[in-house]
Amino acid sequence: MEKKLTILDIARLSGVGKSTVSRVLNQDPKVNAQTRARVESVIAQHGFVPSKSARAMRSQSQQVVGIVVSRLDSSSENQAVRGMLETLYQRGYDAVLMESKFSPAKVSEHLAVLERRGVDGIILFAFNDLDYAAMAPLREKLVLMARERPGFSSVCFDDDGAVRAVLAHLGERGLTEVAYLGVERSDLTTGLRRHQAYLDYCREQGRTPRSALGDLGLQSGYRLAAELLTPTTQAMVCASDTLAIGAAKYLQEQGRTDILVSGLGSNPMLTFLFANTLSLDFGYKDAGILAARQLLDQIEEGQPPRATIAPCQPL
Amino acid sequence: MEKKLTILDIARLSGVGKSTVSRVLNQDPKVNAQTRARVESVIAQHGFVPSKSARAMRSQSQQVVGIVVSRLDSSSENQAVRGMLETLYQRGYDAVLMESKFSPAKVSEHLAVLERRGVDGIILFAFNDLDYAAMAPLREKLVLMARERPGFSSVCFDDDGAVRAVLAHLGERGLTEVAYLGVERSDLTTGLRRHQAYLDYCREQGRTPRSALGDLGLQSGYRLAAELLTPTTQAMVCASDTLAIGAAKYLQEQGRTDILVSGLGSNPMLTFLFANTLSLDFGYKDAGILAARQLLDQIEEGQPPRATIAPCQPL
What we know:
The structure is a homodimer of 315-residue chains.
Chain A: H1 7-14, H2 18-25, H3 33-46, H4 52-60, E1 64-69, H5 75-90, E2 94-99, H6 104-117, E3 121-125, H7 132-135, E4 142-145, E5 153-157, H8 159-172, E6 178-183, H9 188-205, E7 211-214, H10 218-228, E8 235-238, H11 241-253, E9 260-264, H12 268-273, E10 277-280, H13 284-301, E11 307-310
Parallel strand pairs in A: 1-2, 1-3, 3-4, 4-5, 5-11, 6-7, 6-8, 8-9, 9-10
């Protein structure tokens, strides 16, 4: 006697995804005729009957995804959220939005509410000191943004690749006296990873690094530029566009507009305001699209969590 | 024989809101003992029995509010949304977020989805050319942001008051040669209303207005400043901080940092980058809080739609 098949077995035998099988079972008109015929023939052949509880679970889905941003006024997160919303909306999902303001306690609270509401999935903009143990039961329906974590699904920005792309570009332009303005290394991505990429690059090139770290504000960029400037400085690479704007202002005041200032994040203000500047586009929106797709692959197709690094745009 | 009482009658007789009566009926522990006793005594006295359908409707509430923003990357809308989320969250509601990108068709589509989902209420960042006739059935559970409309509930920013506050402040500083950089009057609020406030103020003060209108971008501010600058200009009042940044850059290049540039919106970049500038805080976050409260008053207490103008912050 044949062993009882699951919906996943039917999907594999038909060469389609789990969600397509679901759609066939639920008589969704959006499945094309050929696919429907193939799935139905596999079902007929193997005598598959969906369990009552599976059908009930399926129909209980609200098609809602929770998105927990760290700050509503973060330009990078907004770009990513825009990509997520477009993707989710196209696939028939809506998004509930919450803001954590970098508080691990608020994250826990928001996740508990989303759980109680029975949302289908969650995208969380992660940061330091989150309680990953408490999140473990959510793993299958969770995607972390901007932080990876063993066992969890994630989409990270390419911090290392972005800083290296900028440094390589400056190298091609013959600039070798390149200082780095960064963020404290307690911040894993904007802080540690970007700074480390600069240090590694200098070592590989046999150069002496010259860097200083501060907070994320405009004033910090201004102050760090003052700290690092020497008569021979040719370029300043900054961990963010905000720092770059602060630095460019200082250099303008000092009459040192010969120094190239680079930022990260593609803020139009930097290049509009200051002539000798450039900014690398991190591809935040595309990263948001990737994250939404990855989440839907998990919750609709049963794919396992995976760690993705979203590529940055070429300079 | 007594006429059958509604839940609203019980609320009035008890001197509490409709939602408090609901909470007492649903044995919500958050109602304080004294209030509960008062409501229960009124109920006992008048023999009120909630109708089955009213109870069913009440329990069907998902405590979800839809927010339709025009652009996710709008700093002013983000500030307002932050105020909304905080207020809704405190009151036990979550928010589903959608983006219209200023497309009336997208607004219709989003509203239809929110309706199908049975959300409790909707806050819509409104703009030109919306189909208000189609929205009429939603009136009781809808609040418009940034546009008022007869019969609809709304929270508007004080465009007229903000421009007048800036002009009065410049007057106190003895500046009378004041040009205005604005946005096309096809935009009702940032365009028409702010420009009109400037024209009215000039007429009242017996001054000759000097203004030019363009789009919302940085380049537009730069270009309009070039167009309006005269040897005697003392100040430039701009319809937005973005325009003000563009204008300040032009004036810096011309060596005319004697001219004061004012923006609207409290963007920290303007005052950080340019010395002789100021920006009036529109109070966007407070306006968001007002809108959320107004919506909850409508859907929980049955209050009628009303038009509110959120005050701007003093300079």
